[in-house]
Amino acid sequence: xxxxxxxxxxxxxxxxxxxxxxxxxxxxxxxxxxxxxxxxxxxxxxxxxxxxxxxxxxxxxxxxxxxxxxxxxxxxxxxxxxxxxxxxxxxxxxxxxxxxxxxxxxxxxxxxxxxxxxxxxxxxxxxxxxxxxxxxxxxxxxxxxxxxxxxxxxxxxxxxxxxxxxxxxxxxxxxxxxxxxxxxxxxxxxxxxxxxxxxx
Amino acid sequence: xxxxxxxxxxxxxxxxxxxxxxxxxxxxxxxxxxxxxxxxxxxxxxxxxxxxxxxxxxxxxxxxxxxxxxxxxxxxxxxxxxxxxxxxxxxxxxxxxxxxxxxxxxxxxxxxxxxxxxxxxxxxxxxxxxxxxxxxxxxxxxxxxxxxxxxxxxxxxxxxxxxxxxxxxxxxxxxxxxxxxxxxxxxxxxxxxxxxxxxx
Lengths: 200, 200
Hints:
By secondary structure, chain A is an alpha/beta fold. Helix content of chain A is 40%, strand content 24%. Chain A has two domains: 1-36 and 101-200, Rossmann fold (3-Layer(aba) Sandwich); 40-99, Guanylate Kinase phosphate binding domain (2-Layer Sandwich), CATH 3.30.63.10. The first copy, chain A, is globular, with a radius of gyration of 18 Å. Chains A, B: ATP binds at residues 16-23. Chains A, B: This is Guanylate kinase.
């Protein structure tokens, strides 16, 4: 009898409302967990200075992007203003097959799309400690009018209602604590009895 | 809206076959996680030199112990040769209510009893990397005859079949790695969405 943990990597979805700090937590996680693979998004927006194709984004024309949607090459996608953003399936599937865990940092809408395609992925909802704290963080960005602030807070309230579709909730009270929790979740998931492989 | 993690502690069961290293892992965990409460067993065996009542064990007479069984004051118990061993309910429940997690290191039979009384406890099966490794560890203790060795290995094989009743499997390839896994499991369980408390 020999027992070992699954060699296939796990797909981890880090989602939550706009302003909760998904990007900050992901940046801190990269330092903490260099063994994790971070999915690179495809986008139709123009590269900013210093951004590299295949590193920051896969830069696509609108035509290429629409072709990817049609060919089901994206596991989730969305349009913001004039630009498209999405997660290429190929990179995710190849990386998981190689045994690496992959983390996706996406909005709640995107997470919903992924859930349909990857029901066994690990879904983590990043939560602000209070709605007031979320408000402060959005205001802190300084880029919001009162109307868009109200819009974002309403959207967040709607998104909180979807929390039960997630497996875990990580309260982002402090970035380092939030990272510790995400790391523990990933390690623990590898130990779940239904992920174990037993051979004679 | 305010979200916070449950303030009630969790009951964690660390179980597995005889010889797998439950005691060693628990001793290492005590150093690593001093915030965890370690359940103190009741026993009818005589105290050894230096052992303190309420610290190493709660020392009981056979009559007292039988009374505890009758009063359902034990969440699991067993008889080995002439002595009784069991886990007092009072300490576990008081400690959980105070907000501390409690870990029980017990055999598979005991874990089964706890599962009936505490179905929401977190059940961790400590597994040897291979059955050969388990054999070597039991032999390494030097206290086994060939007959008891065969008996222990048979018992272990039966116990492996109950693994699906557990939530997690921790492979005890190295003590420190095993401890890291247990620690991650406990942290992750605190983040499970069904443990979250949301208030308006």
